[in-house]
Specification:
With about 350 residues, the chain is an alpha+beta fold. Helix content is about 20%, strand content about 30%. The protein is built from 5 helices and 17 strands. The strands form 3 sheets. Strands 1-6-15-8-9-10-11-17 form an 8-stranded antiparallel β-sheet. A 7-stranded antiparallel β-sheet has the order 2-3-16-7-12-13-14. A two-stranded antiparallel sheet has the order 4-5.
Length: about 350
């Protein structure tokens, strides 16, 4: 009898171990960065960690050699990557109605998501270029068109490098139907080169919120009275997510006074832990059900439609302590503030 019990126990133990083993082997592997993204340029300047979870973009003076001649008219007439450079660089003279004929260097190191999304939560951890990064811009943004078409929608994080010891500046911007000029700039309250920090965008039909380590640094509201027909809020075009590192020493640091020191190259930006809790848009066919306001996802429910009390306090702290530039306050560029500025002010007052 004792022998039979021992045999039964042995059989049961073998079955349990077999199930555990099969369960472990069936567990899906963690998604690698390459599962979500594809390289868009200078593949030999993109490196990946051994586990595939971290990507590194390397910028040197070889990746910025391609240049094109453009300008003499609206920036919408320029090639796609130049459009992005000019539209951001125009902060040095933002009231300019046209761009003179110049040679522009094209950013050559970057990646983009394989999928497009309409609404959701998008986050990624970045570690920015350390030491002397003057003239170097790391861009992390969403855009409705791969080629930055004239009527594109776009949501931007841009990190403007600086001389060693000087603080990084983060610039955010919003485009709707090709119209941008909604820049805000903040200094970061930590060293973004020492470790990874999380940069996220919450996008729903009510507002767009830019987060840094869960702190809402910027809120861009929609107009509830005409949510789909105003001239400033992206609401209908699904977007890819991009990142790139590029030379912008004609404008990025002190208005172009500080030039990129190529002797310090390569300049390296690092990425990991991408997450998109969002409405994925199919490559073909009808729009997905999540594109409508169904309330099925947390980012499409009332708690995500406005900042909570703690977030409002954090956002107010940001405005008091680290805000450098706000287009809503720039009367030289906008004698009459854009209409969304009044919506934001009303939200802050409530």
């Amino acid at each position: 009898m004792g022998s039979r019990r021992r045999d039964l126990v042995a059989i049961l133990a073998a079955v349990v171990l077999s199930c555990i083993s099969r369960g472990a082997s069936a567990a899906p592997a963690a998604a690698s960065f390459g599962d979500n993204f594809e390289i868009t340029g200078a593949e030999d300047h993109v490196k990946t960690s051994a586990d595939g979870q971290t990507w590194y973009l390397y910028l040197d003076n070889k990746t910025g050699k391609e240049k094109v001649r453009g300008g003499g008219g609206p920036s919408s007439e320029l090639p796609s990557k130049v459009v992005h450079a000019v539209s951001q660089g125009s902060n040095a003279n933002p009231s300019s109605a046209s761009i003179p004929f110049l040679f522009f260097f094209l950013p050559g190191v970057g990646f983009q998501t394989k999928e497009r999304y309409l609404f959701g939560w998008f986050s990624m951890k970045l570690k920015l270029v350390g030491n002397d990064s003057a003239g170097v811009v790391t861009a992390y943004y969403m855009c409705s068109d791969v080629d930055a078409a004239p009527l594109r929608d776009e949501l931007d994080f841009e990190f403007l490098g600086n001389r060693t010891g000087q603080p990084y500046i983060i610039q955010t911007n919003v485009y709707h139907n090709g119209v941008g000029g909604r820049e805000m700039r903040h200094s970061l309250w930590f060293d973004p080169t020492a470790d990874f920090h999380t940069y996220a965008i919450l996008w729903n039909a009510k507002h767009i919120v830019f987060f840094v380590d869960k702190v809402p640094i910027r809120v861009y509201p929609n107009d509830a009275s005409k949510p789909t027909s105003n001239g400033f809020f992206p609401i209908s075009k699904p977007m890819y997510i991009f990142s790139s590192i590029w030379n912008a020493d004609d404008w990025a640091t002190r208005g172009g006074l500080e030039k990129t020191d190529w002797a310090k190259a390569p300049f390296v930006s690092s990425y990991r832990d991408f997450a998109a809790d969002a409405c994925a848009w199919p490559a073909a066919g009808a729009p997905p059900a999540c594109a409508a306001a169904t309330g099925a996802s947390w980012w499409d429910q009332p708690p995500a439609w406005a900042l909570d009390e703690a977030q409002r306090l954090d956002n107010a702290w940001v405005g008091r302590n680290v805000l450098i530039y706000d287009y809503c306050d720039d009367r030289k560029r906008f004698p009459t503030p854009p209409e969304e500025c009044a919506l934001r002010n009303a939200g802050n007052a409530s």
